[in-house]
Every structure is written in C-alpha cells, then in structure tokens.
Design a protein that fits this description.
mainly alpha, three-stranded antiparallel sheet
C-alpha cells in the first residue's frame, strides 16, 4: 500500500451565534458583564480536576470516559494528518474504531514529524485549552473554533471512509466528529462562562491524562510484551532504528513540557515568590 499508515491504540446555527461567540454583548446569559476573578476561575479548574479524578476512579469509569476517548482519538488522528499536510505530504482520510483506537492514512511529508504528532497533538490540544482557559471570551471562542474545526475536518477527511471497506467504522467516525463539533458550537453559544471554563479545563485535564496514559501503555508494551504491537512508537523505531521505548519516553517529556509550559504561562508566570 502506498503512503504511510499510522497505527494508534489508544442544530442549525442561528444568525446571531457568531455575535455571542465573538462579541461581548448580546449573550443570553450576559455573563461577560460580570468578569470572573482569578480565584473564581481557579475554583472552577479545581472542580474540573476533581471531576476528572472521579471519572477516572469510579466504577465503570471506561463508560464515562468513552466520549473523551473518542474525541481525543479524533484529535490524535487529525494531528497525524495535519502534520503530513504541513510538511508537504497528503492526508487521505482517518477513521476511528469502537474500541477507541484509530488510523490516519497519509502519504509523503516528513515521517519524523508525522509519526510523533499523533500523541503530541493531544498534549498540544490540552495545552491550548489551558492557555484559553484564563479568559472568559477566549474560552468561548476556543469552544466555537474547536466545533467548527471538528465539523470541517470530519466532513473532509472522514467522509472518504464511506466509500471503502471501513464503511461502518466510517459511520462511527462521522457521527462522532459531527456530534462533538455540534456540541462544542452549542456550548459556545448557550452555556454560561463558568460552565464554559469548567468544561474547557475538564477536557484539557482529560487530554493530559490520556496523553500520559497512552504513552505509559506504549512503554509497558515496549518493555514487557514479547510481541511487536503496531503503534506510533514502533513506527518511529522502524524509521530510526532506535527502540520504541526511547521515543515514548521522549514524547512524555515533551508532553510534560507542553502542558507544564501552558500552566506556567497562564497561571504561574506573574506569581511573586
């Protein structure tokens, strides 16, 4: 097969919607008139962290985390595709599966960049949400832009799967992508600023946890499994001759830097010690 196959495991819009998203006036909650202070935002972040913790330790946590898994798998696969495009390659399509794994079909581009961008794109996604989370308006804009991007990329790069042997997986991919995109647009236009900031950080925290969890799984597989499991780290090992565990560790360090840098830039840079 030509190209690169990246393996991973892991409402109609009203005319005034853009005014709600990009203008500080006219929102039905009128919450922009009362700016949240830093302590209020930090309290919402703490609540988001508590919610993420509960979602990950409660019984049947997989059921409650399943939507996050599908969302972040979409982000992962789109990361591969966008990296291919930005490095001069071609992004054919992507597909996600019911078990939460996915595939991105790309050709050309810089494989040294395309392969690691899957896991790292989840960390970048979380970091961007953290950066947007300090501002009420930026949080709402981020929700809206994510929704638009999700719908656009899904229609462009998931639709081709309907004309392949992956038809049923393509249905899941398209329905998930459009549902997430529509949800983000609805949230951007309708929920209060407090709820927007809470949800934005909940997704950011889930993105960070997913990035570390998936890379930890890659390390465990690379260290203790006698079988070669196809994933981004093994693809990188095949490309460079350097063991997969090395790349997984490097990506964890980069992910820590991205998320830690976003936290520092957003909340710690101006703190006087």
């Amino acid at each position: 097969m030509c190209g690169i196959i990246i393996y991973t495991k892991i409402v109609p819009i009203k005319n005034h919607w853009t005014k709600y998203m990009f203008n500080q006036s006219g929102h039905p909650y009128s919450s922009f008139k009362k700016k949240l202070n830093t302590s209020q935002i930090l309290s919402l972040i703490a609540l988001a962290g508590l919610a993420a913790f509960i979602l990950n330790v409660m019984p049947f946590s997989f059921v409650f985390n399943y939507p996050f898994r599908l969302l972040l798998t979409i982000v992962h696969e789109l990361g591969h595709g966008i990296a291919a495009i930005l490095t001069g390659g071609y992004f054919q399509n992507f597909v996600i599966f019911a078990d939460g794994s996915g595939l991105a079909y790309t050709a050309g581009g810089w494989r040294f960049v395309v392969i690691p961008t899957g896991y790292l794109s989840v960390a970048i996604f979380g970091a961007c949400l953290i950066l947007a989370g300090r501002s009420q308006l930026a949080s709402r804009r981020a929700m809206g832009l994510i929704g638009l991007a999700m719908i656009g990329f899904t229609l462009r790069y998931a639709t081709p799967t309907l004309f392949s042997r992956q038809f049923f997986h393509g249905i899941l991919t398209i329905v998930s992508g459009l549902a997430f995109g529509g949800m983000f647009l609805w949230l951007a236009a309708n929920v209060s600023d407090k709820m927007t900031i809470f949800l934005l950080h909940l997704i950011a925290i889930e993105a960070g946890l997913t990035a570390f969890s998936d890379l930890g799984t890659v390390i465990r597989i690379s260290t203790f499994s006698g079988n070669v499991v196809l994933n981004d780290a093994t693809s990188m090992a095949q490309l460079t001759g350097i063991p997969a565990i090395f790349w997984a560790v490097v990506w964890i360090i980069i992910a820590c830097g991205l998320l830690g840098g976003a936290i520092w830039q957003t909340w710690l840079r101006d703190v006087e010690l």
